[in-house]
TrEMBL record, chain A:
This is Sugar ABC transporter permease. Keywords: Cell membrane, Membrane, Transmembrane, Transmembrane helix, Transport. It is found in: Cell membrane. It is a multi-pass membrane protein.
From TrEMBL, chain B:
Belongs to the binding-protein-dependent transport system permease family. It is a multi-pass membrane protein. This is sn-glycerol-3-phosphate transport system permease protein UgpE. Keywords: Cell inner membrane, Cell membrane, Membrane, Transmembrane, Transmembrane helix, Transport. It comes from Rhizobium lentis. Residues 72-263 form the ABC transmembrane type-1 domain. It is found in: Cell inner membrane; Cell membrane. The gene is ugpE. The complex is composed of two ATP-binding proteins (UgpC), two transmembrane proteins (UgpA and UgpE) and a solute-binding protein (UgpB). InterPro entries: MetI-like (IPR000515), MetI-like_sf (IPR035906).
Amino acid sequence: MKRSALDGSQHTNVIYLVPGLLLYAAFVFGPIVAALGLSLTSWDGLTMPKWVGLGNYAALFSDSRFYIALRNNAELMIFYCVLPLVIGITLAACVWNLKQREQLALRTFLFLPYIMPTAVLGIIWAWLYNPAFGPFNQFLRAVGLGRFALPWLGDFNFVLPAVGIVATWYFFGFCMVIFLTGIQRIDPSLFDAAKVDGASARKTFFWITLPLLMPEIRVVLLLTVIASIKSFDLIFTMTRGGPANATLVPNIYMYQLGFELNRFGAAAAIAIVGALLTFVINFAIHRLLGSKSKGLA
Amino acid sequence: MRRSSNIPAATLFLRLILWLLAFVTITPFLLLLLTSIKSKADVLRGAFALPAYPHFENYVDAWNAGHFNIYFWNSITVVIPVVAASVFLGLLTGFAFAYLSFPLRRTLFAILTLGMMVPAEAFIIPLYYEMRYLGLINTYAALIVPQIAMSIPFSTIFLASAMQQLPEEVLEAAVLDGAGRFYILRKIVVPLMIPAMSTLALFLFIWTWNEFLIPFILVNDDAYRTLPLGMLFFQGRYTVNTPVLTAGAVIVIAPLILTYLIFQRRFIAGLTAGATK
C-alpha cells in the first residue's frame, strides 16, 4: 500500500483502531478462541471443565447422529445453493433485457423474501404447510390434487425437501439480483458481436454470459454455502430437527447438546467442525472458480 | 435503452411466466395479510376465501395479549444504538484500514475477516458464559453489545473500501492546509461517505431487526424479547388462533417491507457492491 497523506505516527494511528477492535476482541474473537478451547474439554456448565483433548472430536466421528446431521446438511445444499443458483441465473438471463421499469418491479418482488427474518419465515411456512388448515394443502385439494395433501413437516420422506424449498424461495431472488448486476458489467459489444454472428440465445448464454459471470457465481456459492452450514433459525422454527432426525443439522445438534443436555464441550466441538467446514469449502470455491479479490490488507 | 421495440411473442410468453413466478413468490405474504384480517370462523371456510369484513381486532389482540407492544419497543431500543455505534466504530476502524499504517496490519485484518466468516452459532456458548459472568444476561446490553461487536468486521471493510474510492487529492489538499486528521475525518471524509454510511445503516438495521440466535440464547425474560423471539413464543401460545398469529407476523415484517420499499434501489446497489467486492 502506498503511504497516504493522512498517515501519522503509529502511536496515534492506533487510537482509531482501538475502540472497534477491543469490542470485537471481547465479544467475537475471544469467544471464538474460547470455543476452540472448550471443544477440548468436557464441561457441564457448572463444575470445572475437564481436559479431554480431541476426545469430543473422536466421539463425534463415531456418533451416528452427527453423520445424519452432516448428510442432511449436504442434502440441504441442493436447496440452499444449487437450486437458487440455477434458477437465479436463468431468471437473470431472462430479465436483463426487459425494460428498466419492468425489470425493477420483478426484482422488487422476487427479492422480497431475502430481507425477512428467517425465524419468522419458518413460523409462517410452518403455518402454510399445516396439514389440517394450512393454505398449501387447501390449494392442492382445490386444484384436485388432494391425494398429494401430506403432513409435510411430519412426513419423514418429505420434510427435508419441504424445508429446503423455503431456503430456495428465500435465496433465488437474491441470486438473480447479483447475477443481474454481473450481466450489466459485461461489455455489451460482446452480445452485439454474438448477434451479428447469428448465435442463438442459448449459445450466447453458455458461451458468453455464463463464463463471464464466474465472479458472481463464486460470490453466490460462497454466501449460500455459508448460509447452509449455519442454518439454524429456519429449521429450528419449522421442525426442530425432527421428525426422527430427518432435518437434524449440525447447528441444531449443537443446540441440543449444549443448551438442552448441558454437554458444552461436545457442542463446542460441533461448532468448530462447522466453522472448519466453512473454511474448507470457502477455500475450495476460491481455488476451483478462481478469484481476483483486491483486498485491503 | 438497449432494446424495447417489437418484442416477439416468445418474450411475451416468457414475461408471463416471470410475472407468474413473481406472484407465487409473494403469495405467502399476501396470504399472511389476508388471514390476519379474518375471524376464526373465516379461516375454517378456506385459506383463499375473503372475510365478510376486515377483523382488525386481531392486530389489537396480538399487540396487547401477545406483548407485541413490549417486543416492538425492545426491537427499537436495540436497533438504534446498534446501528449508530456500529457505523461510528466502523468509520474509525475503517479510516485506519483505509489510510493509516500500524503494526500487525495484515494480521489484524485477517482476524477481522475471520469474524465475518465464523457464524455466531460457533461461539455462542462462550459468549453466553461471558455475558453471564458479566451479569448481563436478561439486559438490553446482552442484545446490543455483542451485536455491535459482530457488525464491526462488515462495517469496517465496507467503509474502508468506500473510503479508498475517495479522490486522494481532496484529502491531500486538506492536509496541506494544515487540518488535523480527526478534523479531516469529520469535516471531509464523513460528508463524502453519507451514501455509503446510509447503505450500511440500512443493512445493519435489517440484520439486527432479524437477529434470532443472540436474543434467543442471551435473553429468556419476556420483558427483553425482540420481535422475532416474541413471534416464536407467540407461536407456542397461539397455534390454534391463526388470525392472531398471522397478525403478529405482519407486525414483525411490516417495518421491513416498508423500509425495503422506500430504500430498495439503495439496498440492492449496496448489496451488489458489497457482495462482489
